[in-house]
Amino acid sequence: MSISSSSKPSPALNIGIIGFGPFAQFLAKIMIKQGHTLRATSRSDHSQLCEDFGISYFRDVRRFLEADNDVILICTSILSLAEVLKSLPLHVLEQKTLFADVLSVKEYPRDVLLKVLPEEMDILCTHPMFGPESGKDGWKDLAFVYDKVRVRDEDTCSSFLRIFENEGCRMLEMSCEEHDREAAKSQFLTHTIGRILSEMGIKSTPMSTKGFETLVQLKESTMKDSFDLFSGLFLFNRYAKQELNNLGLSFEKVKQKLLDMMDVQQNLKDSDSCQQKCP
């Protein structure tokens, strides 16, 4: 399901970001451009970078949680999510807050958030289907998937979603389960094939075809992401293992067809040789 695209200005939000790596920085630039107030905290010291962005940086996580955030955006890695969330002193939260994540898997963060967060906190699971490379020229027509897992404050949730809607994203509402099923068939397979091509060491040549150059670009784009991200797509998406098995089975089927054709050609060759020798 998609929500209609509009250009309504989004009311300014106080958005706190947990984890200020490259993807969080990429999102922050647009949020700042739209007039939202940002705060950030991270295990790595990004205080100077946040100062350059005009973002308040909190080394003290407790003070960060007490900073009157309308939305807390979780931008940790998949692998560190549970550890980070369990380390937060969530009992100090003084107002109802919308917690949103942007991880590339959805059932896993949904389950962790439901388990860890106080019941009065709202939960929105999202996945911008783009990153700093694919979204460098704008977000128009790029997919943004979301699931309102537990939302009672519709105004805050709508204002947050409008950040992406106003940038021209294709807004796709679907369950976390449906997202993971489809992502295993698309995003995970894309990264897997890119990693395989990297292991093969493919590179451009003077006689490269356009199709081969597409493979080279796939390898290069997927290898820009960390192995932690790739392994997270596998470890925390219950549909990924089956797609990995399907990829292996499909490879074996194609390989067998080629070997069968080789046998046919060899039999024809042997038959021709016999006819030439036999009177």
What fraction strand?
A: 5-15%
- Count of beta strands: 8
In the residues, how many domains can be counted?
Answer: 2
Distance between the termini: 74 Å
Q: What composes the largest sheet?
A: 8 strands, mixed
Estimate percent helicity: 40-55%
Number of helices: 10
Radius of gyration: 24 Å
Structural class by helix and strand composition: alpha/beta
Kindly report the average pLDDT value: 94
CATH superfamily of the largest domain: NAD(P)-binding Rossmann-like Domain
Order of helices and strands: EHEHEHEHEHEEHEHHHH
Per CATH, which architecture of the largest domain? 3-Layer(aba) Sandwich
Low-confidence stretches: 1-6
| Strand arrangement, major sheet | 3-2-1-4-5-6-7-8
Task: Give structural notes.
- With 279 residues, this protein is α/β, with parallel strands linked by helices.
- It folds into two domains: 14-175, 3-Layer(aba) Sandwich (Rossmann fold); 186-269, no CATH class.
- Helices cover 50% and strands 14% of the residues.
- The chain contains ten helices and eight strands.
- It has an eight-stranded mixed sheet with strand order 3-2-1-4-5-6-7-8, sandwiched between helices.
- Strand 7, helix 6 and strand 8 form a beta-alpha-beta unit.
- Helix 4 packs parallel to helix 5.
- The termini are far apart.
- The model is unreliable at 1-6 (pLDDT under 50).
- It comes from Jatropha curcas.
- Keywords: Oxidoreductase.
- GO terms for molecular function: arogenate dehydrogenase (NADP+) activity; NAD+ binding; prephenate dehydrogenase (NAD+) activity; prephenate dehydrogenase (NADP+) activity.
- Residues 13-279 form the Prephenate/arogenate dehydrogenase domain.
- This is Prephenate/arogenate dehydrogenase domain-containing protein.
